[in-house]
Amino acid sequence: MPEKDKTFTPSKRRFGVLGTGRITRRLIADLQSIDEVEVTAIASREISRAKWCADQHGIPAFVQGYENLIQREDVDAIYIALPPSLHYPFAIATAENKKDLLCEKPFALNSAQMEAIDAAFQKNRWLDATGWLHHPRTQSFANWLKEGSLGKISHLSAALSFYQPFQSNDHRLQPELGGGCLLDLGWYIFGFTRFFMRQMPRSIYADAIVKEGVTQRVNAMLWFENDVTASISCGYDAATRKWFEVAGSAASLICDDFTRPWHDRPTRCWIHEASGKVQSHSFEGNQEQQMIKNFVSGEPLRHLQNQAIDTQRMIDAATLSIESGSKVDLPVMDR
User: Fold this and answer.
1) Number of domains observed in the structure of the chain
2) What is the pLDDT of residues 232-243, one digit of tens each?
3) Is the same domain home to 95 and 159?
4) Is 305 helix (H, G, I), strand (E, B) or coil?
5) Percent of the chain whose predicted confidence (pLDDT) is above 90
6) 261 prior amide bond cis, ω within 30
7) pTM of structure
8) From CA 109, how far away is CA 90, in angstroms rounded?
9) In terms of residue numbers, what domain contains 90?
10) Given a cut of 50, is residue 1 above it in pLDDT?
11) How wide is the angle at C-alpha 294 spanned by C-alphas 285 and 133, nearest 5°?
């Protein structure tokens, strides 16, 4: 068993929520389903909006202004579900107020911001809210890799898309708020390669279709050590896809719902052996609830934090490649 995080103070964790959007309301239900957690306050820029959401979810306090909530004494941890451009300032404010942080992806706009956030959290815990990393199925992925069930990995591929999944005034259509599919969907597909390779690529080449300053589609090629390659794609201009393949010398691992299980089907994946035999696997579990449990448990988070930091660095490299039109080499980093 891993050693507990020595900075962790065991108690019922009182969460304050920044933002009242759709994704916020979904995670509030997951927070409230965990015995070790209570949601004590929610904040919005508009007091009426904060009150409406508090009333809807039975949250005791509603607050106008995000900084005002972060400073409250009845809050131990902050959940940020704001546009990406607001993650950095309120993450830093959370650290300065000595509270834990659970933040939606992308964790920041770039790796410089992310590294500054990481440095600020000396006494408290932070975690990006990337649910699929916490599903019991993902532990099976890791176990199969460790056991060598796929043989030598040679190539990874992934595609993630939603066709124009926007509501009015959606921040994903506003570049100044961190909009676009690279920071949004790209977080998952670049993170997928980091999870399976447990390392950064040596090089990245990416291109993009951009409309009105917003990335609508991104395609990228990645090169890793030992002749491993990856091809990944994400965008807002194709029907829903959320699949990956990890191809090895003995078998391939295939998943068609890795970011979030289909609501009307079991969480699943398949191993296609070289012989043609197919193993089908299905799993139980709620990834968001497990993520919250992991966050409040006191178990070390450094491996997940490294995953998030490296994901942000890969997105930075992809951004540079898109802007320069050339392949970008990344420094070798030991973890």
Assistant:
1) 2
2) 999 999 999 999
3) no
4) helix
5) 86
6) no
7) 0.94
8) 13
9) 13-129
10) no
11) 60
